[in-house]
């Protein structure tokens, strides 16, 4: 089953990638959709970041202080350096020191 | 000329690999710890070939999510490729179908970023499709090799190193530089909040609701700013 899901999602991804220049048909992206697509990466990735830092079991909010601190340091590094490596190293080192 | 374009593409990609290698390693490690087999983890890097969505696939799989949630989450994350596709289309009008298939397969965030710059500056005077091929193949190869190393290392890295934490850190590195306007900030905060409070919902559906909520809020704030 996992292979089926994997191949199907891979295929969908390929269709996205070729969608606008397949040469089979001349398709243009509706401008209205364009307005939404710009928010896709920030929105999806923020959801994952938030859920891996803070969880909620229906009654109480749970978090680990050292992860929140490490993530905050990472945010600062990401803002200043725009580098994945620098952010990763800064966050992990903070995590290990704590 | 073709060879030169190809090599220019390769060298344009090199600095970006600094971010790709740790991400590939993390995915390899995470794939194994999510219960995927070595073959599944390694092949996912060429079947899906899109970093963030592969990580989400592995995480949702490990959490026992419904297939439809996994599939639609991956699709949602990769929807941005439609934008890239539209953007490179006008520059690849003369390509035959074989070229289109190869370049579409290699169309990633990084390959798009370096190629579109070349396309707009030299698109008419040079065989820039070789540039994109060079950039795309360099990224592809790096992604495969770093996944394999991650898979091999995954079984030997002690658990208390907390390497899974590298995932949100990597995403922070991607998202933070994108937060340059009020709509994107509101979009990120909205989806983050929904994600936190939606986690107890079944099938991990929170990821879809949070993403859609963030997207809608972003578009809403943009429109509101515009009308002000």
Give a topology summary.
The complex is a heterodimer of chains A (98) and B (228).
Chain A: H1 2-18, H2 31-37, H3 40-53, E1 54-56, E2 61-63, H4 65-81, H5 84-97
Antiparallel strand pairs in A: 1-2
Chain B: H1 2-13, H2 17-33, H3 38-47, H4 51-62, H5 67-78, H6 80-89, H7 97-105, H8 109-122, H9 128-154, H10 166-175, H11 182-198, H12 206-227
Helix pairs in contact in B: 1-9, 2-3, 2-4, 2-9, 3-9, 4-5, 6-8, 8-9, 11-12
Largest inter-chain interface?
A-B, 67 and 92 residues
Q: How far apart are the first and last residues' alpha carbons of chain A, in Å?
A: 41 Å
Integer count of domains of chain B:
2
Mean pLDDT of chain B: 89
Tell me what the structure shows.
The complex is a heterodimer of chains A (98) and B (228). Chain A has helices at residues 2-18, 31-37, 40-53, 65-81, 84-97, and strands spanning 54-56, 61-63. Chain A is mainly alpha-helical. The mean pLDDT of chain A is 87. In chain A, β1 and β2 (61-63) form a beta hairpin. Chain A has a two-stranded antiparallel sheet with strand order 1-2. Chain A has a domain at 38-98. Chain A contains 5 helices and 2 strands. Chain B is an all-alpha fold. Chain B has 2 domains: 2-163, no CATH class; 179-228. Chain B has 12 helices and no strands. The radius of gyration of chain B is 19 Å and the shape is globular. The model of chain B has no long low-confidence stretch (mean pLDDT 89). Classes of the chains: A mainly alpha (98), B mainly alpha (228). At the A-B interface, α1, α2, α3, β1 and α4 of A face α2, α3, α4, α5 and α6 of B.
């Amino acid at each position: 089953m996992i292979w089926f899901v994997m191949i199907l999602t891979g295929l969908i991804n390929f269709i996205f990638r070729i969608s606008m220049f397949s040469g089979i048909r001349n398709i243009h992206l509706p401008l209205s959709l364009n307005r939404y697509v710009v928010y896709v990466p920030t929105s999806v990735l923020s959801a994952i970041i938030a859920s891996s830092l803070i969880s909620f079991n229906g009654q109480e909010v749970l978090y680990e202080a050292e992860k929140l601190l490490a993530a905050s340091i990472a945010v600062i590094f990401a803002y200043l350096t725009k580098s994945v490596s620098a952010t990763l190293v800064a966050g992990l080192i903070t995590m290990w020191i704590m | 000329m073709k060879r030169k374009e190809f090599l220019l593409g390769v060298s344009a990609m090199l600095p970006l690999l600094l971010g790709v290698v740790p991400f590939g390693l993390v995915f390899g490690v995470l794939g194994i710890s999510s219960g995927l087999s070595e073959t599944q983890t390694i092949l996912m890097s060429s079947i899906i070939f899109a970093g963030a969505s592969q990580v989400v696939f592995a995480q949702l799989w490990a959490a026992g999510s419904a297939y439809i949630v996994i599939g639609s989450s991956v699709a949602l994350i990769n929807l941005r490729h439609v934008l890239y596709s539209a953007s490179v289309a006008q520059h690849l009008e003369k390509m035959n179908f074989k070229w289109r298939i190869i370049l579409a397969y290699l169309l990633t965030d990084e390959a798009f970023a370096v190629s579109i710059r070349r396309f707009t500056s030299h698109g008419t005077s040079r065989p820039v499709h070789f540039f994109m091929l060079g950039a795309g193949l360099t990224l592809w190869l790096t992604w495969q090799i770093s996944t394999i190393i991650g898979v091999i290392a995954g079984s030997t890295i002690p658990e208390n190193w907390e390497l899974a934490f590298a995932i949100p850190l990597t995403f922070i590195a991607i998202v933070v530089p994108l937060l340059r306007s009020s709509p994107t900030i509101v979009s990120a905060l909205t989806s983050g909040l929904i994600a936190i409070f939606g986690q107890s919902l079944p099938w991990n559906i929170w990821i879809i609701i949070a993403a859609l909520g963030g997207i809608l809020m972003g578009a809403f704030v943009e429109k509101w700013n515009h009308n002000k």
